[in-house]
Amino acid sequence: MKLIFERSVKGRGCSVLPECEVPVWDFGEYGRKKELRLPEVSENDISRHYTELAKRTHGVNDGFYPLGSCTMKYNPKINERTAANDGFTGVHPLQPEHTVQGCLEVLKTAEQVFCEITGMDRMTFQPAAGAHGEFTGLLLIKAYHDSRNDGKRTKIIVPDSAHGTNPASAVMAGYTVVNIPSDPDGCVDLQKLREAVGEDTAGLMLTNPNTVGLFDKNILEITRIVHDAGGLVYYDGANLNAIMGVTRPGDMGFDVIHLNLHKTFSTPHGGGGPGSGPVGCKDFLARFLPSVQVEGDGPYTFVRQPDSIGMVKAFYGNFLVVVKALTYALMLGKDGLWEASRNAVLNANYLMEKLADKYKMPYRRTCMHEFVMSLEQEHEQIDVSAMDIAKALLDYGIHPPTMYFPLIVAEALMVEPTETESKENLDEIIRAFEEIYEQARTNPEAVKTAPHVTPVGRLDEVQAARKPHLKYSYDE
């Protein structure tokens, strides 16, 4: 495929712009010294270029996208229609409050809905993504301890199965990370947790269901241990898709939570677009929330929290993403959210059970929304790795699962089918996994050199990571 620069022909173009209605400013010595290098192409060239690019992309609208721990679920089109409403797209964040009452009502309603789902008391929509929400939540924890002159609390406990952003966020917030191992069942080792907590414990970061797709049956004991030590408990909302409408983190003892609206609540995920990682908290932390909160029952007004940690993003967060997520939650309603979670769990267990005869499942008990398989045995016996299986799936039009994560499982593939896949689709996926497995046993070289029918074959992973070609080089 040619790059847009390679389609360029000098003198060709398609822009028909009206004459400038204002004086043209001459920047003099500060102006550009040579002509800007832009591709010169016709409208036909542009149309064909982007159409060809679109054909080479793969997303939730193209096929199965089982990216474990990322919840790549279908984005209902009504979300986009709602967010495109002129009353939402035509506002400015500096408008007077009385002119944007509808937008303030959206933020207030969204706060009420998501607090009800999570068991929190207040919520901010400022954070722009999940990791940004983690950082914000940790700043709330830090502000709480500082307000009590409890400066000795310098450590955040993080399980070994946590998302990599958890320890990174803790370090950014100024904490030392204490890593604790999982028990043989893939959950938090209670004895190791008891040994780790103390007067220097600021908090624990935890995902439940955890990263191997299991609900920790000891969750009430876990949160009690941390609270008894004087710490707070942070809920990573990455896996909320398994439990929304069923149980609430706030009822499990969590004090702070972030949500991934671009995961659980069906707004677009990936591609560099805007995410949203709102942070909820219990009442005793609300005074530290960033920016301003919407108060009132109409008319609505902005109120700054008395001991706010300050702004973590400009204005009020990615507002249109909140509109999309709220549309999804209200369209499904209480019963619909409950059903979505149950179907996500059902789909994951169906897929796991059907594949368990061939693929090793390290934790062979009822999973939640995702499960982890291990190719360690195949790697040792026939030199076929998790990466090879993932690459082979591309030839079936399937996006690979999450690879080599969590780190506590060797040669891991983590699969999350989500609730929006039908049984017929899942049966096709099962057949693909089974065929690849049989081919790995009978003709391993074919799997190790996959993919074979994609526009680009297997890349040199090391060179692609270390020496990527990120810009076009002109021939002088």
Automatic annotation (TrEMBL):
Record has Cell membrane as a keyword: no
EC number: 1.4.4.2
Listed GO MF terms: glycine binding; glycine dehydrogenase (decarboxylating) activity; pyridoxal phosphate binding
A cellular component annotation (GO) from this entry: glycine cleavage complex
GO biological process assignments: glycine decarboxylation via glycine cleavage system
InterPro entries: GcvPB (IPR023012), GDC-P_C (IPR049316), GDC-P_N (IPR049315), GDC_P (IPR020581), PyrdxlP-dep_Trfase (IPR015424), PyrdxlP-dep_Trfase_major (IPR015421), PyrdxlP-dep_Trfase_small (IPR015422)
Catalyses which reaction(s): N(6)-[(R)-lipoyl]-L-lysyl-[glycine-cleavage complex H protein] + glycine + H(+) = N(6)-[(R)-S(8)-aminomethyldihydrolipoyl]-L-lysyl-[glycine-cleavage complex H protein] + CO2
Annotated positions of the N6-(pyridoxal phosphate)lysine modification: 263
Function: The glycine cleavage system catalyzes the degradation of glycine. The P protein binds the alpha-amino group of glycine through its pyridoxal phosphate cofactor; CO(2) is released and the remaining methylamine moiety is then transferred to the lipoamide cofactor of the H protein.
Cross-referenced NCBIfam families: PRK04366.1
Annotated protein name in UniProt: Probable glycine dehydrogenase (decarboxylating) subunit 2
